[in-house]
Amino acid sequence: MMDAIELDNVSIDYTVKSGTESLKKTLIKLINQVTLRKKIETNQHFNTYRALTNLSFNIKDGDRVGLVGRNGAGKSTLLRVLGKVYTPSEGNLKIHGEIASLFDINLGINPDATGIENIINLSIMRGHSHKEALSIIDDVKAFTELGDFLYRPVYSYSSGMSMKLTFAVATAFSPEILLIDEVIGVGDASFMKKARQRISNIIVQCRALVLTSHSNEIIRDFCNKVAVLDNGHLKFYGSTEEGIDYYEQEILKIKSKAKSVQIAQGTI
Amino acid sequence: MLSVLTDEIKSILSNKLMWKTLGTLDIKIRYRRSAIGPFWLTISMAVTIYFMGFLYGHLFKLDLKNYFPYLASGIISWSFISMLIIESNHAFVESANYIKNQPFAISTFIMKIITRNLIIFAHNLLAYLPIMFIFDAGLNSNLLYFLPGLALVCINAYFWGGVLAIIGARYGDFDQIIKSIIQVVFFVTPIMWMPKLLPEKYQWVVLANPFAQFLQLLRNPLIGQPISLYTLSVMIIITVLGILLFGHLVKRYKYRIVYWL
Questions:
Q1: pLDDT of A159 strictly over 90
Q2: CA A118 – CA B10 distance, rounded (Å)
Q3: CA of A113: which chain B residue's CA is closest?
């Protein structure tokens, strides 16, 4: 069976913003260093820490992988590495197939544009052609039941309506490899049922799936494999039931004793 | 570095639909609710240049036939150049939402800025058309230099715009710094005043000013004057510098930008 995704010793050094990155300060520091000819103690504007450490595993065709771990374990970071948003600082990542991500489904919605315009723009920004964008309009219309609202600007929508729209567009195309970050579990009960049905449909069609969730129920429903992350390390990779057991016993058990997430400080 | 640059330039072509969509949508929406749409740009530019032309022409006691087209073309060209510079700073910051969620070629967001400003520039130029005929300005073969001049400005808007966008993503105060610099540059660049009014010994102020050369590139064809060899050689040096700096920054920081946003 072919591999959809291969990770070989992948590490990520994440740059943390301090919120005070200033060109003025940097220049003054530089001038002082040159004129006073001495090294001045500086507090680094940017710190990096290793968000993911030496991850090696393969995701095969047909795998449905659930990422579990505590907050800050590196789940979302790993998804963004697989989605090619973050490039590995070390190691090799190979992805065989076209990827689509459901991270922030509100991404790129323009409140001043009409529903139809947003459907087209969101599709184009996801890398589809104009023709493909037009082809999903009927599907989105049917799913969202927004009717004439689609011809009005999105700012006139309720938040639920605009969420329906972005969700429908994001799930209108079925990719080869699908990455989902906590999107299942939004909206009211009736919408959630429809949304889950729609996600199930594209999951069935895709070659590989990686999703994060804090809900064991969702992991059990959608996944046949579980990867347990803790502190940026891969602790377990195997079947769903074993993975969930491992996570609950080995990771959550030590939660009370564990000190806060250790951050290795460094420089860029 | 060469492979980094060719990758970026290839991505401009492959992502054409994205930056065209991003660049045009803002303008389409902004003027949707008015009957004449983006021609409001033309009208407001026309009002500005017509009033300023008369006012300053009389203040400086200049021959309106020469001064009016000079000032009008200068203000239109400068507003294009200065907006490109100012908007390039937040090219990545304003598109942070996209960059943090999907892989994108950074060129897409630089091209968006250029597209948007080219559309605005084209509308502003319409305000200049009547002046050309009324004052018989720029209606000679030198007008042919306009398109090559514009192309050279756009090439620099890409490479230097990219440099500004990367620095702007890294440093939060860069935007403010650039805005204040642009304000000063407006006064030291011959936009409202003519270089010939300067005494001989201060002519270097114009020659040493790179923004004056950018301005000449657009303005001279519009007022029927050739682009000087001096301007052209300075522009070539600036362009080469821009390409080198852009290539260096992209090679070094391309994958870091997403963390800065």
A1: no
A2: 27
A3: B29
Q: How far is A182 from A25, CA to CA, in rounded Å?
A: 39
For A48, the token pair is 């990096």
Q: Do A126 and B102 touch (CB under 8 A)?
A: yes
Nearest-neighbour CA in chain B from A13: distance (Å): 10
Note the CATH number of domain A102-206.
3.40.50.300
A85/B174 CB distance under 8 A: no
Cα separation values, A93 from A15, A86, A103, A179, Å: 20, 11, 20, 15
Domain A3-97+215-255 and domain A102-206, same fold? Reply is yes
Question: Domain extents for chain A?
Answer: 3-97+215-255, 102-206
How high is the pLDDT of residue A216?
84
| Residue in A closest to B169 by C-alpha | A21
Q: Determine whether the interchain pair A113/B103 forms a contact, defined as Cβ–Cβ distance below 8 Å.
A: no
CA atoms of B48 and A18, how far apart (whole Å): 43
Q: What is the ipTM of this complex?
A: 0.82
Q: How far apart are CA B216 and CA B228, in angstroms?
A: 8
- CA–CA dist B241, B40 (Å, integer): 37
Residue A258 has what pLDDT?
43
The CATH number of A3-97+215-255 is 3.40.50.300
- The residue range of the domain holding B131 is 2-260
**pTM given for the model:** 0.87
Distance from first CA to last CA of chain A, Å, rounded? 40
Q: Residue for token digits 């494999």?
A: A225
DSSP states along A15-68: EEE-S---HHHHHHHHHHHHHH-SPPP---SEEEEEEEEEEEEEEETT-EEEEE
Q: Do B170 and A21 touch (CB under 8 A)?
A: yes
- Residue A184, pLDDT score: 56
C-beta of residue A195 within 8 angstroms of C-beta of residue A184: yes
Chain A / chain B CB contacts < 8 angstroms: 77
Give the number of domains in chain B: 1
Tokens of A112: 């001043």
